[in-house]
């Protein structure tokens, strides 16, 4: 025959904690709560029952000396549910049809913060965070201590993310390195620019200057870097575009000039890509591009953690979050609309 149905639980069958405390007080015994499901309080009951039993024998002469330091039953710590695990946040990949990204940001440099002056008065606008996280030479340039035009000599070499890795633990392989040369920069030139001719080949000077944004038209303070006349405009643009996208246009007719400027800026992976194209081994460039994106992603994480090159701060309930407008613009249409001034 089937077992009888279970008797429904009535409210009087459940003993609330308050009633348990009252019963324990009437009996003169400690009160402990246990849960077989959560395994809470079981050890407390056994340990303190042993304490109470031993203390009850302490009046005997034989046990007096042995149980002298025995504690009375302890108070039970309150039950704290375990902290729930943090939610798993999955960032979806941007749709392939999205027209905006690093390549479009380079062609339409919204929120640019650095401008390169080339021969013939040509100017190339760019974003420091993209260049610095893709090229250690640019990271060293943009982190030179003392702002351009202040006349202050740097107290030490420029620090890089790799140099500060001790505070973060060991960083990933290929992290940004420190400046290798201990030679201090020369004194500022007459126009307030800092002389870079002794710092690296291809660079002439660097200064702060109020420049009109090439997209929004608003004037803002930018880093102006004057390049040597040997740096041609189109090959230099190709190198900067590679630092944004990790790709090289193989049909270019000036690949040797691109390789020369890549060597100048220590972008050795781009120089290797050019060599592969010239040697009819372009298929090897896919692995170089993959490694480029992994390396830059790690460097961007370091910049985000330290707030390096941050140009916007988001105020939230429990603090502030520094961020970078170019990265936000390239990855989010809402951010692009907001920083472009057309946010509705």
From TrEMBL:
PROSITE patterns: BTB (PS50097). SMART domains: BTB (SM00225). Residues 112-252, 310-344 form the BTB domain. InterPro entries: BTB/POZ_dom, P-loop_NTPase, SKP1/BTB/POZ_sf. Transmembrane segments: none annotated. It holds the Pfam family BTB. PANTHER family: SPECKLE-TYPE POZ PROTEIN (PTHR24413). This is BTB domain-containing protein.
């Amino acid at each position: 025959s089937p077992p009888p149905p279970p008797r429904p639980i009535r409210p009087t069958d459940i003993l609330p904690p308050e009633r348990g405390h009252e019963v324990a007080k009437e009996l003169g015994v400690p009160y402990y709560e246990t849960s077989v499901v959560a395994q809470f309080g079981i050890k407390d009951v056994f340990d303190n029952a042993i304490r109470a039993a031993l203390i009850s024998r302490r009046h005997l002469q034989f046990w007096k000396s042995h149980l002298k330091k025995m504690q009375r039953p302890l108070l039970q710590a309150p039950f704290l549910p375990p902290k729930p695990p943090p939610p798993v946040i999955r960032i979806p990949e941007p749709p392939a049809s999205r027209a905006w990204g690093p390549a479009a940001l380079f062609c339409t440099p919204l929120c640019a913060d650095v401008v390169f002056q080339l021969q013939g008065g040509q100017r190339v606008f760019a974003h420091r965070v993209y260049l610095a996280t893709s090229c250690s030479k640019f990271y060293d340039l943009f982190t030179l201590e003392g702002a351009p035009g202040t006349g202050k000599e740097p107290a030490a070499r420029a620090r890089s993310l790799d140099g500060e890795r001790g505070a973060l633990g060991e960083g990933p392989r290929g992290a940004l390195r420190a400046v290798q040369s201990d030679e201090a920069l020369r004194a500022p030139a007459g126009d307030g620019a800092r002389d870079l001719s002794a710092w690296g080949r291809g660079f002439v000077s660097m200064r702060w200057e109020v420049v009109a944004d090439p997209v929004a038209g608003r004037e803002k303070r930018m880093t102006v870097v004057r390049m040597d006349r040997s740096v041609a405009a189109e090959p230099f643009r190709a190198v900067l575009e590679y630092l944004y996208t990790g790709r090289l246009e193989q049909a270019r007719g000036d690949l040797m000039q691109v390789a020369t400027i890549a060597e100048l800026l220590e972008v050795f992976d781009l120089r290797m890509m050019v060599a592969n194209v010239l040697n009819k081994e372009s298929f090897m460039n896919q692995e170089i591009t993959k490694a480029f994106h992994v390396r830059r992603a790690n460097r961007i994480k370091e910049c985000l953690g330290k707030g390096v090159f941050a140009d916007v701060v988001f105020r939230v309930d429990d603090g502030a979050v520094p961020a970078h407008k170019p990265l936000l613009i390239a990855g989010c249409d809402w951010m692009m609309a907001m920083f472009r001034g057309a946010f509705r």
